[in-house]
Amino acid sequence: MKVDISVFDTTLRDGTQGEGISLSAEDKVKIALKLDQLGVHYIEGGNPGSNSKDIEFFRRMRDMKLNAKITAFGSTRRKNSQADQDTSLVRIVESGVRAATLVGKSWDFHVTTALQTTLEENLAMIYDSFAFLKRRGLEAIYDAEHFFDGYKHNPEYALACLRKAAEAGADWIVLCDTNGGTLPNEIYEIVSRVAKEIDKPIGIHTHNDCELAVANTLAAVQAGARQVQGTINGYGERCGNANLCSIIPNLQLKMGLRCVSDEQLGQLTSVARYVSEIANAVMPVGQPYVGNAAFAHKGGIHVSAILKDPKTYEHVQPELVGNQRRILVSELAGQSNIIHKAQEMGLDISSGNERARAVIEKIKTLEHEGYSFEGADASLELLLRDAFGEQTQIFKLESFKMLVEKSDGRLVSEAIVKIDVDGDIVYTAAEGNGPVNALDNALRKALVQYYPEIMNIALTDYKVRVLDEKDATAAKVRVLIETTDFKNTWSTVGVSDNVIEASWEALVDSFRYALMNCKKTPAAQEDKREQLGIVNH
Amino acid sequence: MKVDISVFDTTLRDGTQGEGISLSAEDKVKIALKLDQLGVHYIEGGNPGSNSKDIEFFRRMRDMKLNAKITAFGSTRRKNSQADQDTSLVRIVESGVRAATLVGKSWDFHVTTALQTTLEENLAMIYDSFAFLKRRGLEAIYDAEHFFDGYKHNPEYALACLRKAAEAGADWIVLCDTNGGTLPNEIYEIVSRVAKEIDKPIGIHTHNDCELAVANTLAAVQAGARQVQGTINGYGERCGNANLCSIIPNLQLKMGLRCVSDEQLGQLTSVARYVSEIANAVMPVGQPYVGNAAFAHKGGIHVSAILKDPKTYEHVQPELVGNQRRILVSELAGQSNIIHKAQEMGLDISSGNERARAVIEKIKTLEHEGYSFEGADASLELLLRDAFGEQTQIFKLESFKMLVEKSDGRLVSEAIVKIDVDGDIVYTAAEGNGPVNALDNALRKALVQYYPEIMNIALTDYKVRVLDEKDATAAKVRVLIETTDFKNTWSTVGVSDNVIEASWEALVDSFRYALMNCKKTPAAQEDKREQLGIVNH
C-alpha cells in the first residue's frame, strides 16, 4: 500500500506529559500493540535516558515483530560535552531501536534563556548528536522545538538549526509548535518556506493551546509536510498534543491522502476507546469521529431527516471510522456490536427472534446503569448464552462477607463466602492482600474441589472506573477484570455503587467463563466433606 | 469601545442540543447574566415556538437591563403557508425580543429530501419570513443551514438563498457548517466569494465534527466574516459547536481583533467554569485557555525553563484570560516544581536547607511507591507543613474496621472507627452507600463534636487508579479525593494495595486540610460523653 502521509504516534512519550496520564511498562506494551494494528508508522515509546520504566518497555519490545517502527526519544547532547559520552544518547543506542527522535532548540531566545549557551554551541549540539545517531546506523528524526516561535523571532537562525541537522544526516525535519500558539495561516506560510529551503522530508508536531492543533497539522500537510506527529485522543501536556484520531480521518477521508488501510481506519474508534480505558482517562462524549456522541442525533428534525438520508446530518459514514450512529431517545439505536458478537457465537439474533429482542433490551438497560461491554467480551458472551437458554451458572451465592481491619498499624483483609454448588453448601474463608484479593482467594478455595481447573487461571488486570464522579465516595463504580488461562485471555465487568460488590460481580463472571466448558468433578469424598465444611442443602 | 467582531452566543439554544446538557429557565437566566458580563453581543435564548421553558425565559429577561441583545430562534415559515400565520414566527414576535435568528435551508438536497418541497418554494419561505420580521421591526439574522455543503453541491442555488434573505431585509447573513465536515481552506475560499457577492455583514456558525470548528471560524473571519456564532465550552449536538472560549482569545490576543474589553476577557475562565457548573458538565482538564491544565507544567525541563521565563513554554499570559499557571509535581519533574509550591507557601526551601532536602527525598520515595501529588495539592501542602514542623494532625487512629456483607440479596456497608482526639478516645460506627462512604460517615460522626465545621464540607470527586494492573486484585491502587467547602476546593491522595486503606488515607488528609485552620471546640459536656462513646485515654 502506497502511503502519502507517515503517522508518528507519541502517545507513550509526549502523551504521558498530560495531567493524570501515567502508564506502566505493561500498559505501554499493550498500547503499542494496538497502535501497530491501527497501522501507525512510528511508535515513540519513551525516553530511555530518563527512566527505568522506559528502558523496560524497550527491552520488552525488542523481540516483538511489528510493522511500525518503535522509536526512542532524547535531547541533543548537553552543552560543552561530547555526543558519544552523553548518557542520554548512549541509552538510546542501547535501547535497541532502529529509529530515534531528538528534540533540539531552534528558537534563539530558548538557547540563551533556557539552555544558557551560545547560538553556535546549540548548532554544534544539533550537528554532533545527529552525526552520532547516523554513525550508529539509526534512522534519525529532528524535532525542532519551538520552531515557529523561533522562526517568527529570528528566521535565519531557526533555518540554520534545520540545516545543521540535515547536514549531519537527519532523515526527517519535524517542525514543532511546542507552545501551541501559532495560527493555521502562519503554519502554512512558514512550512511552505521551509519546504523550499530544506531538502529533507518535513514533519509537523503541534499542540492544542489555541484549539487549533488539528487545523495546524492539516495546514502543514497542505504546505508540504509528509509526517504528522500526535497522540491518541490528543493526550499531552497542558491542552494536549494534536489528536491523531481526528487527523487520520481528516487526511484520509477529506483530503484523499492515504495514511492507513481502510480496514485499519475502521478500527479507529475501538483503538481510541481502548487507549482511554488503559490510560484511565474519560473520553469526552463528543470527541470528533470516535466519541460516543460523535454520530448521535438528538433534535427531532435532525432525527427525521437522518431517517430519510443519513447524509443530511452526517459529514461521513460512522462505519468508516468504526463508530456508529445513535438516535437518542429512540428504539432504533444501533446494536451492531452485539449482533456481531452473537453471530460469531452462532446465535440467531435476527430481528424476528423474541430472545434476541429481550437480550438487546436487557443490554440497553445494563448500559444505562453503567455497564460497558466494549471491554468485557466474556460478560457479554455469558449474557447472550444465558438469554439463549444455556446453563452457565456454576454456583449460587448464599452470602459473602468482607472485612478490612486496621489496628495497631496492622492491616487485615478477610473474606467469608457461602455458596451453593449443585446442592452442596460450601462455607469458607480466606485472607488476602486487599479485599478483592481476599474474595478471589475465598471463592477459589470454595470451588477447587469441584473445578480443580480454577487453579490454572490467573487474574492479570484489575481496573476501577468511577462513574458520576461528582457523587464522590457514594458514586457508582465500574470494575473490569482480565483473566488468562495462559492460552486465552478474557475480560469481565461489574457495576455497583459499592466497589466490593462490583468487584465480586466481575470476579464471578470471570470464573464462570473460565469453567464454562469444564466438567464438574464428583463431590468430595464423604470423609473429607466435613473437614471442607461442605453440608447438603 | 470599537468592536471589530460581533460575538453571538448560542449556548442556551444550540448548546442544549449537546448530549447530557439540559438547562432550566432559571439556569438560562443565570447563564445569560454571566454572558452579559463577559461582553458577548447577542445571547440566543431559545426557541419560543418550540417549548414553554423558553417562553418563560424570554418573559423573565424582558425587564432586565443588559448590554447584550437577547435573541429568539426559529425556522423560516412552513412550506405552502403564510408567514404572519406561522405560529413559530408569531411566537418570536410575542416573546418581546429585539432581534431574532431564523434558520433556513440553502442546500438543494435538503430542500428536496428533508423539506420535500421545491427549490422555488424554499426561496419564497426565506423571503416571506424575513420580510415578516422586518415589518415587525426586529433585527433579523439568517442562519443559512448547511451553506457550505450546499455551496459545494450547487453554488448558484446556495447564493440565491442568501440573496433572497438580503432582499427581504435580513441584517446578517450567517453561513453555517451544520454537519461540521468542511475544512478551513474551503471555508476561506467560499466565504471570500460570498463576501464579494452579498452586500450584507456576514457571520459564521461552525460545528466541531472534524475538530476544526475554531479554525473554521478564524478562517471565515480572515475571509471577511464579522460575526462569530458559538457556545461556551463548545457545547452542542454531536461533537459540539464552535467554542467561544477559544475563539474570543484567539481573535483578540492573536489576531488583534477586538471582541470584548480586556477586563471582560479576564473573566473568561470564571465564566467558562460557571457555565460548566450550571450545565453540570465536567470540563476537560486540558481545555484550551480556560481548563485547569491549560497552563500546567509537568516535565522537569519545562518547569525549570518556566521558572527562568514563563514565555519559554506559554503562548500567552494566563492572567489575560483569568486563568493561572500551575506547576505539577510528578515523577517526570525535577525538584523545581516542589520548590515552586513551597515558595508559594512561603517556606524556605533553598538548597542549603536540611528540612527541604529531607522532604524532597520523602516525596521522591512516596512517588516511587505510587503516590502522585500532581492532582493532590492539599496532601502535598500537608506534607510540606509537617516537614517544616507545623502540627496538622487532628487525631490519631487507634483502629478502623470496615465490613461489607451481602446476604439474601441485601448489601450492607458498615464502618467502625476508634480515634484519639487529644486524649479522648472516640469509638463510633456508621453505615454508608458503599464502604468508603461508610468510613466517611463514621469519621465525621467521630469528629463533629470537636470540629462542627466538618459538616460544611462535601466530597465532590472520588477517583481510583490501579497501579501495576498486572498484579490484578492484589495490585496497588491510588485514590484521589476532591473536597470543597463551597469557597475553595482541594485534592488529596492515598496509596495502598488495599483500596479501603488508600481511600482512608485520602479521606483523612482531606479532613486534616479542611480543619487545619479551625480551632478545636472543648470536648463534649460530661453528661454527653458516655452517650457519644468518648472515654479518656
Q: How would you portray this structure in words?
A:
2 copies of one chain form a homodimer. The first copy, chain A, is built from 19 helices and 17 strands. Chain A has 3 domains: 6-12 and 37-260, Aldolase class I (TIM Barrel, Alpha-Beta Barrel), CATH 3.20.20; 296-388, Recoverin, domain 1 (Orthogonal Bundle), CATH 1.10.238; 396-515, Alpha-isopropylmalate synthase LeuA, regulatory domain (Double Stranded RNA Binding Domain). In chain A, the strands form 4 sheets. The first copy, chain A, has an 8-stranded parallel beta barrel with strand order 1-2-3-4-5-6-7-8, surrounded by 10 helices. In chain A, strands 11-12-13-17 form a 4-stranded antiparallel beta sheet. The termini of chain A are far apart. In chain A, strand 15 and strand 16 (489-496) form a beta hairpin. The first copy, chain A, has 537 residues and is of the alpha/beta class. Chains A and B meet through helix 4, helix 9, helix 10, strand 9 and helix 13 of A and helix 4, helix 9, helix 10, strand 9 and helix 13 of B. Strand 11 of chain A pairs antiparallel with strand 11 (396-407) of chain B, so a sheet runs across the interface.
